């Protein structure tokens, strides 16, 4: 596999990501066997690849499984999130009375997700859980309920597999640590 020159090291290969998502999909399949209606909410843009692989790893023939997307941005300056989210694009459908899983790419401080969950809870879903591909456990500033976690990672800046820096590197099939010189110029 050829690695992009701006990547310091590959953290998880595409195969490792796929294998882990199969396991997460099995867990979700098992937990939602009795669900009538399950909505997976992808948070754009970072979660688009994770969503595509996760939904294929869920096998619930007796459940109405649907996919919806939101685009949010966190108010604040520079790289620190303020914890107040602005909704740039909202869901198309009503989630009241439905089982909901938020599908996120990464949790850093947890502030963005915490604010999003308050917003979604107010819409009265039957249940609300989170599936996040990556969690920077040591960076968490708030406790966020996060039931399905792909991988815990150290506090480094990750790109690839949907995750970007300045809209670059989303297309990489693996998750990699970005070289410092790539975000300094
Ligand atoms: P908080 O701190 O609110 O932030 O949990 C979560 C959001 O911050 C972005 N983020 C990253 N994006 N590589 C990225 O591509 C990273 O290593 C990274 N860390 C945080 C991301 O938008 C996430 O939704
Ligand atoms: Mg995000």
Automatic annotation (TrEMBL):
Pathway per its UniProt entry is: Purine metabolism; IMP biosynthesis via salvage pathway; IMP from hypoxanthine: step 1/1
Q: Kindly indicate whether the keyword Metal-binding belongs to this entry.
A: yes
Q: Which residues form the Phosphoribosyltransferase domain?
A: 15-165
User: Which EC class heads this enzyme's classification?
Assistant: transferase
A single BP term in Gene Ontology: GMP salvage
Oxidoreductase as UniProt keyword: no
Pfam families the record matches: Pribosyltran
Question: Which InterPro entries has this protein been placed in?
Answer: HGPRT (IPR050408), Hxn_phspho_trans (IPR005904), PRTase-like (IPR029057), PRTase_dom (IPR000836)
Q: Where in the cell is it found?
A: Cytoplasm
The UniProt entry, under SUPFAM superfamilies, shows: PRTase-like
The cofactor(s) it depends on are: Mg(2+)
* Keywords (A to Z) from UniProt: Cytoplasm, Glycosyltransferase, Magnesium, Metal-binding, Nucleotide-binding, Purine salvage, Transferase
A single cellular component GO annotation: cytosol
Molecular function GO terms recorded:
hypoxanthine phosphoribosyltransferase activity; magnesium ion binding; nucleotide binding
**What catalytic activity does the UniProt entry give for this protein?**
IMP + diphosphate = hypoxanthine + 5-phospho-alpha-D-ribose 1-diphosphate
User: What is stated as this protein's family in its record?
Assistant: Belongs to the purine/pyrimidine phosphoribosyltransferase family.
Question: What name does UniProt use for this protein?
Answer: Hypoxanthine phosphoribosyltransferase
The lineage, from the top, is:
Eukaryota, Amoebozoa, Evosea, Eumycetozoa, Dictyostelia
Gene name of the encoded protein:
hprT
